Structure formats: C-alpha cells, structure tokens
Amino acid sequence: MEKPLPNIPAKRYFTIGEVGELCGVKPHVLRYWEQEFTQLRPMKRRGNRRYYQHHEVLMIRRIRDLLYDQGFTISGARNRLQELGQGDRDRRRGGDQLLDNVEAVDVIEVDAAEETGFEDEFDDAAPLELADEFTQKLLQVRQELFEIRDLLSPTR
C-alpha cells in the first residue's frame, strides 16, 4: 500500500525539492514534465531556480495521478488535462456570464436623512448602514472570487 502524499503547507512559493517531496516525484522528472505539460510554468529567479505556486503543486499531483495511478501515457495525460481544463473554463465562463450583469458599486457613506430629504422619517438609519455593510461584504467576496478564479486559471 502506497503512503499518502503530505498536506501542502500554506506557502506562496515552493522550491523544486519541496515540490518533489510533496508530490512524490524526483526533481528531474518535474523538469521533464515542464517540457511536456504547458500548464506547468514555474517562476524562475536567480540562477534559473524554479519556484512553484500552490496551483502548480496541485497540477503536478494531478499529472502524477494520471501517469502513475491511472496508467495514462504522457500524451494521454496531456489530452486528459486539456479536456479537464476546457470543462473548467466552460464552467467558469458560465459563472462569468452570471457575474457580467453585476456591476461594481462604489459604496459611499451618506447620511440617509440628507440623501432623501426626509429628515423626520429617518430617526434610525441602522437598516441603511446594514445594507451598506452587506454591499461592501458582497463586493469584497466578489473580488476574492475573481482573484481565486485567476489563480486557478492555467491559461492566464
């Protein structure tokens, strides 16, 4: 029985040695896979040192599973990843269409009585303040979702 792969720590960048240990693959294999799979593009810094991001570590684990566990060939795994990527892009595109009709709203704090001219009717502006808080939180979540989508997108 094969031992499970270790959990991926919450780090921004991983060296090729760390990725090798996290994915159960030797560094020379990772360098080869970079040539075969266009989805793998680690950042290179001084001395051509490779630094992988979290999404690339996940991709390497997926490639490893396809090749070692499911028995795909390199070209078969490449095709399978492209199919999976296309399905992901189609699903995201559907999500983009839902979000396309949502406009970003700049939240400006305004005194409710001043804005409406109904000074006497707005003794308690709490509902408006809650709505503003809710709108701000929604905009923050929307921005975070777009950032996550960009992180997960192999083509961007």
Write up what this structure looks like.
By secondary structure, this protein is mainly α. The chain has two domains: about 1-90, Orthogonal Bundle (Multidrug-efflux Transporter Regulator, Chain: A, Domain 2); about 100-155, no CATH class. The chain has helices at about 15-25, 25-35, 55-70, 75-100, 110-115, 125-150; strands at about 15, 45, 50. It has a three-stranded antiparallel sheet with strand order 1-3-2. The longest helix has 27 residues, at about 75-100. The two termini are about 40 Å apart. Residues about 105-125 have low confidence and may be disordered.
Number of domains: 2
Overall average pLDDT? 79
Indicate the low-confidence ranges by residue numbers: 105-126
The CATH top-level class label of the largest domain: Mainly Alpha
Q: How far apart lie the N and C ends?
A: 38 Å
Question: What is the second-level CATH architecture of the largest domain?
Answer: Orthogonal Bundle
**Secondary-structure element sequence?**
EHHEEHHHH
Total number of strands: 3
Outline the biggest β-sheet. 3 strands, antiparallel
Taking Cα atoms only, what radius of gyration do you get, to the nearest Å?
A: 23 Å
The chain-level structural class is mainly alpha
- CATH names the topology of the largest domain as Multidrug-efflux Transporter Regulator, Chain: A, Domain 2
Please tell me what the overall shape is. globular
Assign a percent range to the helix content: 55-70%
What is the tally of helical segments? 6
What is the spatial order of strands in the main beta sheet?
Answer: 1-3-2
β-strand amount: 5-15%
